[in-house]
Specification:
mainly alpha; 53% helix; membrane
Length: 96
């Protein structure tokens, strides 16, 4: 499959003429390429409010814009749930 364009160093376009959705997610994710969800998960260990922000995005169906965000947003929602449970148990032990 050696065409004249490839010999010149030019690459064929990434979009497929038969399936236009193939090139839809070619651009990198925001937040240094790891997506908002995973970035919020990592930053949440410093500031747990980021987990709640990602949870709001998750339940607001933000991942419909880019399905690659779903896993990170779900992980942040789970982290927010675990943090809330731990905080409630800690407050219950201290004050009760």
């Amino acid at each position: 499959m050696d065409t004249a364009d490839q010999r010149k160093g030019e690459y064929p376009p990434t979009r497929d003429t038969e399936n236009p959705l193939l090139g839809k997610f070619d651009k990198p994710l925001p937040c240094f390429g790891c997506g908002i969800g995973w970035f919020s998960l990592l930053l949440g260990f410093v500031c747990p409010l980021m987990w709640y922000y990602a949870t709001i995005l998750y339940f607001g169906n933000y991942y419909h814009k880019d399905p690659r965000e779903r896993a990170g947003l779900a992980a942040s929602a789970i982290a927010a749930l675990l943090f809330t449970i731990a905080a409630v148990i800690t407050v219950a032990v201290i004050f009760l």
